[in-house]
Design brief:
The chain has about 425 residues and is of the alpha/beta class. The protein is built from 13 helices and 18 strands. It starts with a strand and ends with a strand.
C-alpha cells in the first residue's frame, strides 16, 4: 500500500488502544494498537494516553456577529469551537440585525469561510419570526435557501400558540426543525434566578420551573397533534424531564437538549450574587441536576449543547439583577463533560452520542464516524492535562463562565476535520 498521509498510534477508543491511518482526508485503516507499527506516513502522531473522539457538534451557540462583535465574532467563536473539539456549530439568530433575511445568513456564512476556510463549519439558525418579535413568521423558505439549518425564536418565546403551530407546519414542509426556548413569559415574569428558598434569602425575583414546564407541555401536545418534530432547548428542571418521558413513551416526535452548566452547578452557585452564574433558564436545584443526568443516561434528553453566550466583562460587572444572562461555554464544554465521565455519571459512549451522533441525527448532518472509508474527522483529547480557565487559556472573547479562575482536567490536543488540522494545542 502507498504511504498514508497521517498515522495516529496508540490512541484510546472506547478504552482500548488503536492505530488509524489517514489518506486523502479519509480513514484508510482502523486497527488495534501496534497493527501499523511498521507503516510509514507523512506525519506520525504518537497518541498514547490520548482519547480518540469523533468531531463534536454544538447545535446552540451565539456568535454575536453581525452587530455585537465586542462580545464575540465569528472568527473568535469558531476558534473557541475548534479548541473545544467542535467541528460544526449552529449559530442562533439573535444578531443585530436579526438573522431573519437571506442577506444576514449569507453574510454569516461568508465570514465563516473567510476566517476558517478549513473549518469548523458554521450552520446558521434562522429567526422563526420577523425580528424575533413573535408576531409574523419570518421568510423561512428564503432562509433555508440561503443556508439556514433550523429555525428558532432563540431566547424570545413565542407565546401565541396558533402562530407557533403555523411555524411548525411551515418549517416541516421545508424539512427544517424548530428549536424552541420553552418559557411562559407571564409565569417567568422578571425572575433572575430559580424561584425558591434561596431566591427568597437573596432577595432576588425568582423564575419558577413551572414557567419552563408549561411551555414544554404545549410544545409536546402540538408535536403530538401535528405529528411534526420539535426540538426543545436547554431543558433545566425535573418537571420538564417528566413531561418528556411521557412524550417519548407515547411516541411523540420531540427531542431535547440540556447544557453542561445544568449538570454541574445548581442555584447555590449564585450565592454572593455571582453574575457569571446568571443564565436563562436559571440554574435549578440539586434535585433537578440529578433528574437531568438520569434523563441523559436514559435517552429522555437526547443531546448536549453549550448555549454559548459570550458577554463583555463590563456587562457582567453590575448588580446581579441587571446583568445579562449567559455563560461562555465552547472552551470548557468537553472538559466539563469529561468530568462527568470520570465521575461515572456518564459513559464515553454517552459523550459521543450526546455531542456527535445525536445532534447529527436530529438536524440532518453527516455524523463523523471512526471507521475505514469515513472522513477523518477526529479529535485527540488529553484527559490528563490540568489547565486553569483564564483570559489567556480561553479562545472566546467571552470570559463569562462560573469556572473562570478554576482548574479543569482534560483538553483537546488536536482537531482534524476531514483530515485537515483545524486546531493544535500549543
Amino acid at each position: 500500500m502507498p504511504p498514508s498521509d497521517m498515522i495516529v498510534r496508540g490512541a484510546l477508543w472506547e478504552g482500548e488502544p488503536v492505530d488509524l491511518a489517514v489518506s486523502d482526508g479519509r480513514i484508510s485503516r482502523f486497527e488495534a494498537a501496534g497493527a501499523l507499527a511498521g507503516e510509514t506516513a507523512s506525519e506520525i502522531i504518537q497518541a498514547e494516553g490520548l482519547v480518540l473522539l469523533p468531531g463534536l457538534i454544538d447545535c446552540h451557540v451565539h456568535l454575536r456577529e453581525p452587530g455585537q462583535e465586542y462580545k464575540e465574532d465569528i472568527t473568535s467563536g469558531l476558534q473557541a469551537a475548534a479548541a473545544g473539539g467542535f467541528q460544526r456549530v449552529m449559530a442562533m439568530a439573535n444578531t443585530v440585525p436579526v438573522n431573519d433575511s437571506a442577506s444576514v445568513t449569507r453574510f454569516m456564512l461568508q465570514r465563516s469561510r473567510e476566517s476558517h476556510p478549513e473549518g469548523p463549519l458554521l450552520s446558521p439558525v434562522g429567526a422563526l419570526t420577523v425580528g424575533l418579535q413573535g408576531h409574523v413568521l419570518a421568510p423561512m423558505h428564503e432562509l433555508k435557501q440561503a443556508g439556514c439549518a433550523a429555525m428558532s425564536n432563540d431566547g424570545q418565546p413565542v407565546d401565541n400558540s396558533d402562530l407557533f403551530r403555523r411555524a411548525l407546519e411551515y418549517s416541516s414542509d421545508l424539512g427544517l426543525r424548530v428549536i424552541d426556548h420553552c418559557e411562559d413569559s407571564a409565569l417567568a415574569g422578571n425572575g433572575v434566578m430559580n424561584e425558591g428558598s434561596m431566591s427568597n434569602t437573596l432577595g432576588l425575583p425568582g423564575q419558577p420551573t413551572l414557567a419552563e414546564a408549561v411551555q414544554v407541555s404545549r410544545d409536546i401536545l402540538l408535536a403530538a397533534h401535528l405529528d411534526i418534530p420539535v426540538h426543545l432547548a436547554h431543558i433545566s428542571c425535573r418537571e420538564s424531564v417528566e413531561l418528556l418521558a411521557w412524550a417519548k413513551g407515547k411516541g411523540v416526535p420531540v427531542t431535547a437538549e440540556t447544557c453542561p452548566h445544568y449538570l454541574l452547578w445548581d442555584e447555590g452557585r449564585v450565592q454572593g450574587y455571582d453574575s457569571l452564574a446568571k443564565v436563562n433558564p436559571p440554574l435549578r436545584t440539586r434535585d433537578d441536576v440529578q433528574a437531568l443526568l438520569q434523563a441523559l443516561r436514559e435517552g429522555i434528553i437526547d443531546i448536549l449543547a453549550t448555549d454559548h453566550a459570550p458577554h463583555a466583562g463590563h456587562e457582567k460587572e453590575v448588580p446581579f439583577a441587571e446583568a445579562p444572562n449567559g455563560i461562555s461555554g465552547l472552551d470548557t464544554a468537553l472538559s466539563l463533560t469529561w468530568s462527568l465521565v470520570e465521575d461515572g455519571q456518564l459513559t464515553e459512549a454517552d459523550l459521543v452520542r450526546l455531542w456527535c451522533s445525536g445532534p447529527a441525527d436530529i438536524f440532518g448532518f453527516d455524523a463523523p464516524r471512526l471507521a475505514p472509508g469515513q472522513p477523518a474527522s477526529l479529535v485527540l483529547f488529553d484527559p490528563g492535562i490540568v489547565w486553569r480557565v483564564s483570559a489567556e487559556t480561553m479562545h472566546s472573547k467571552g470570559k463569562n463562565t462560573p469556572c473562570f479562575g478554576q482548574e479543569l482536567r482534560g483538553r483537546v490536543r488536536s482537531n482534524f476535520l476531514a483530515g485537515r488540522l483545524i486546531y493544535q494545542e500549543k
